Amino acid sequence: MKTNRAFPTLIFFVIFGLGVALAYARHGVAATWEVAGISIGAFVLALLVSAAIQIADQWDRAVILRLGQFHSLRGPGLFFIIPIIDAIPFWIDTRVITTGFKAEKTLTKDTVPVDVDAVLFWKVLDPKKAALDVADYKSAISWASQTALRDVIGKTVLAEMLEGRDKISSLLQKIIDERTEPWGINVISVEVKDVLIPPALEDAMSMQAQAERERQARVILGDSERQVAEKFAEAAKSYEHNPIALHLRAMNMLYEGLKENATIVIVPSTAVESMQLGGLAGMTALTMGLGQESANGNKLGANRHKEGESKLPVSLEDPALESP
Q: Both 106 and 80 in a single domain?
């Protein structure tokens, strides 16, 4: 109900005060009965005038009933009614109003219990219908929204509900707007805030998502290995009719391995024959040569360090090992 009565109250005291002042000015203090009668008349007049004055805010509309029948809509601003004959049972707010509603433990189409929270944005377009065609339009909107939400949940599977919230919101807006249109109410939008599922189902869905990611990782790894195998096959075709290039590549790989590790390297006998290392003696000579190069490099680096040079020592490599 409307509670803004500041201006009518001010008018009441002004009229009553003027009436009392006029009574004392005309009859004086001695005429007690005359002053009392005028004061009572001023009180009644002030009360009627203040009751006739009504003020509606910019967003309010007053529904006026005259002797129980609809008379008019008034507002915004200042307007007058006839006291006792006219009544204002409803002040209708025409601003956009938000109403929260939810559905608890509602089964989806695939029999999963969910809790859904949503927000409804609506406004009154026809205050007359909202006041006369429904007893409590705010409560009616809340119940209509909840029943529509339960209907939509029962016709939707969980996956669609989690992924397509915009679609569910649009469907809810259409259903609720159809139900509230006869009441003079327009549904602006519906927003689904949250969809809660049981914790056990959350764990199962998390495991499912993890398994799907692992499957994708294995597929990607397998595809990478296939691509690497294809590249090796292409490289093998390049070496197939060029044994010299294959020999040089094998020598280079062996040299790099011995240079980095400086340990014993096990090489298949077929590789030794193809690289013409000359058996165990050739391998020993190659290893000793590399060891001698490493020692010379270390010695040269130590000498240069003593001399104060800032450059790193350059390793001496045998050009014969890198060229055919």
A: no
